[in-house]
Amino acid sequence: MQAQAIEAVQIANIHTAAQEYRIDSHTPSSIAAPTAHASVEQALTSASRERLAVTPIGGRTMLDLGMPPRQYDLALDLSGMNQVVEYEPDDFTITVEAGMTLAQLQRRLTVNGQFLPLDHPRFERATLGGVCAVGRGGLRRNAHGGPRDWLIGMRMVQADGVSIKGGGRVVKNVSGYDLPKLFAGSLGTLGVITELTFKLRPLPASDQIVAVAAPSLEAALAAARAAAQAAPFLNGCVALSADSAVEARALGAKSLQDEPTIVLRASGLESAASEVLSQALRAIRDAGISGPERRTSEIVETWQAIADLELQTPPDHVRLRVGLPPASLIRAQTILDQRLDDAAHWITAADSGLLFVTAPSADADTIRRLRDDLQPLQGRLTIESAPPELKRAANVWGPTGTGARLMHSIKEQFDPHGILNPGRFVDGI
Amino acid sequence: MQTPTALVQDLIDAIGEDAIVWHDEDLLVYEYDGTIDRGNPDVIALPADTDDVIRLIRVANRHGAPITPRGAGTGLSGGALAARGGVVIGMNRMRRILNVDAENKTALVQPGVVNLDLGAEAERHDLAYAPDPSSQRACTIGGNIAENAGGPHTLAWGTTTNHVLALELVTADGEVQWIGHDTRDEPGYDLVGCVVGSEGTVGIVTQALVRLVPRPAAVRTLLAVYDSVRQASNAVSAVVASGIVPAALEMIDKMTIAAIEPVLQTGFPLDAEAVLLVEVDGPESQVEAEGARVEGILTRFEPREVRSATDPQEREQLWAGRKGAIGALGQIMPNYYLLDGVVPRTKLPDVLDAVYEIADRYRLPVANMFHAGDGNLHPCLLFDEREPGATERVLDAGGEIMRVCVDAGGAITGEHGVGLEKRDYLPWIFTEADMDAMKSLRAAFGPTENFNPCKIFPKGHGCGEAGHQHAQHQIAKFGPKAFV
Fold first, then answer.
1. B183 interface with A at CB cutoff 8 Å
2. pLDDT for B3-13, tens place per residue?
3. Chain A residues whose beta carbon lies within 8 Å of the beta carbon of residue B197
């Protein structure tokens, strides 16, 4: 079948390549690597006719995310679609194909003194289509939000092969429903994103990072919270456990030591960035942290190394992500530490209530209890990576709130035959 | 003596006599929302809480009556008009700020809270609510959510959609649900992102959790007066290109100055062609440095004068002209038609030229006051509706201006919504397939065909006579084909 299902689309050697596209021990029976929008239309038209389950794929950095697939026939690899479609620097907007990597985009923009304020692990590989399909804000989400906040337009191919678009190329727009918002964070379950338009920011004149070691993770987190409150215009405010700091150093954050560490980032005009950092450092000192301030000139490398930590755990190793209002972050950390025997590799964004932790021995029962404990704090726990059995037993996404009814109804409207990434998203979607 | 219809009686039984307005003379206020169009509701219902909203929707559904949610009616796109009659649900009694969580920087509010009141409450916690439409003294948070409202300060902070975290929503089937999450960590589709900007066509928001932002330590407002719109536009481009992100970047033109000067005495020279307002904010040192840089850029384009203020009262004075502009237009003509086109920023000077050319050709005075930094134009065509043929001329000119925006790669509305007014222009930017996908999204929210009917999409069932009757004329003149 499969050869005809993806006619006119370049097919990789299925036997050697399939392992590269493995998701939770499932491998696809076909791989298509389109290099043009029309080929995506053709692939989906055929797949829809034959009811093949299609998983859109970008840089393969986050294939672990989500429930094990219910069915997985065609891996649709968009990474070959990586061109700039339209870029007028003075408009501060850019339209690119979905397979362009975040790093490629940033390099293109840097030339013109611009950037897209999104963090994502492994940005050399992560594609913009993937980053947006996953749709989460990164370590600097307090300052910059997430992909949804920078996307202003999108072109996609629906399950039946029909192309649509939403938004446009202007920075303010309420013409028709905001389909880019719907597709951002939909994990490829509503359609395949082929082009994205972003609004951009000018690169700051000055970008500064300071790391301060703390005696314990708890002390680091408390001081980081104090810093975030004292200096609300910080660009980033992260607390790392000692093992995370060691790994980050190995990944390129050379200024970090093997101790629990607070990492602060501020940007803007040099005097303003320094002023914000001073406010934050004063709060850290007031919180009783006396370690030396370690500055670095390698801003991008240092920050990216910290962002990359999230994906450092090997597959099948349990990694959890918790998001909640930042005032409850310390309480959440305590709960996790108490419930998880072997919690390690902590990464926390203290200004936005984001926390990552690994726990090799976590079981479904522990995760259920954690979710119960975190519920009153408005905490949401996602399993980012785990053996398929645990993913199934504990449910990667956890319970879906009262919006579940609407989500099923949207899925039914956009993908009535359920061929797009079936089973991997929330509530069986 | 009027007697209540069965619908009115059931609504009274549902939420009480005091909350239902149904006498003909009382309905007049709700016919109009500042656009050219009119819509006659059969009855107005004023719910006090979420349960009232649920009851109202169920009663209306039982009678097959259209439902039109309404905030303050300041949307300027006909979105709050009862296009097919039926029940207008006015949210103005639900106007409590339920909670401000200063540490997490959020506020929980009812939809009838006035934008400026939320701003004032946030300020008491040294925080701000960023979206600030020019109508902020009247417009409500619920209406802002429906239209994804903007305002001068969205240049730096983004529009309403960037500031709404979670919503209590009653859908068209009368079901209530919470969607979204305090830190956007609820797994699943971004339902909040779908509801914001949906113009009241998928449900009624009954509570909103919004994001507040830290207030900058310092603010500086600069005002520059120019002898040509081109010079002012070039100064705008230069500021944007400089790498500074101003908090606001606004322009007003000669006609606007002529309207505001007699009323507000802002001291703008009547023969000046354009006035630019630029605001920078942030830490003290940044405001000082960026303020100086902006002043340098503005000066490069040979302004007649540059004024600057950091004191709140003096800044307020510099803003008075911009904020009072629309109200002052009545000085020149009794009616105005305010457009909301948005174009890529580099196209702004050419599009402005075209706007003046079109207004000239249609013999209409035009006043421009707009968010220059965002590329969001607000040409106001001034006219007297009592003059035969004037309304038609205005609508034709408006259509041409919209077409120019679309042809420049822009869109038909930046912050006011498509509403009733621009629904026939939607096919200029979207294909049938695009609009079908949008309709699929709407269908997912339940039986929405009676829910704020005739808005956004062209030619809905039973909407032939709704709103202005010039739609067909517009299509014949400019073509229905999508600009893709």
1. yes
2. 999 999 999 99
3. 174, 177-178
